[in-house]
């Protein structure tokens, strides 16, 4: 009788231990694994010092402005053809690439990462920690947007033709009714949460995931509270929009819509997928 081949031993149906290890390495992480990665990330974010959250949020608010700037550049120099919006809207991804790959704090990312620890352990302490993270990051993001918009509005900073294109894009982002803003913000919140969920398994494709998801927000006419606030502050700084109108007509309804889409829909559904497995 032939002796057992040691290379075929192991728990992989006849595969060697080395082959089983390679199979596991090449397999996509299971849903509970992705959940746990994001939950731990949320725990780490909620435990960061306030000063770290503030400056990271400020950096994100300023960086996100490059979405509007790049889109303005593309609109300025591309020919006025029917396909131009599809290509120009790719510029919207640039700010998000800087923020996400640079590990800066963006409010809408926290609508999923900070919620997962709370969903698992629903306590007043965790709710307070989430509220602390959300409030600091959101205020810092908006402060960064205001500073970035003020700097970009200085005449020597950006060529006048590009600034005109940026203001035109910002005006197009305004809708006549706040409830329309809220509805358009729900898909954006969902897509950003979906992007965050996909990143742990994306490996070398993170650039493409971020670009695709944010491009969909732009071409779909959906509203993102931070990227949109940079555009609205651009209008405020130029005197084309009042601060009160910006807050009531854009900021509050879009903030609510992003939270509904990112937390109420995606985050809680994602937790529901794994609630019985963790």
Q: What does this protein look like?
A:
By secondary structure, the chain is mainly alpha-helical. The protein has a single domain (29-274), classed as Glycerol uptake facilitator protein, CATH 1.20.1080.10. Helices cover 75% and strands 0% of the residues. It contains 14 helices and no strands. α2 crosses α11 and α10 (160-173) packs across α13. The longest helix is centred in the last third of the chain and has 32 residues, at 243-274.
Helical amount among residues, as a percent range? Answer: over 70%
Give the oligomeric state of the chains in this entry, treating copies of one chain as homo and distinct chains as hetero: single chain
Question: Helix count?
Answer: 14
Kindly give the count of domains: 1
Q: Label the overall shape.
A: globular
Radius of gyration: 22 Å
Kindly report the name of the CATH homologous superfamily.
Answer: Glycerol uptake facilitator protein
**Mean of residue pLDDT values:** 87
Number of strands: 0
Gap from first CA to last CA: 46 Å
Q: What percentage of the residues does DSSP assign to strands (E)?
A: under 5%
Structural class: mainly alpha
Question: Quick one: CATH class?
Answer: Mainly Alpha
- Per the CATH scheme, the topology name is Glycerol uptake facilitator protein
Q: Major beta sheet, specifics?
A: none
Uncertain residue ranges: 1-11
CATH second-level architecture: Up-down Bundle
Task: Summarize the helix and strand pattern as letters.
Answer: HHHHHHHHHHHHHH
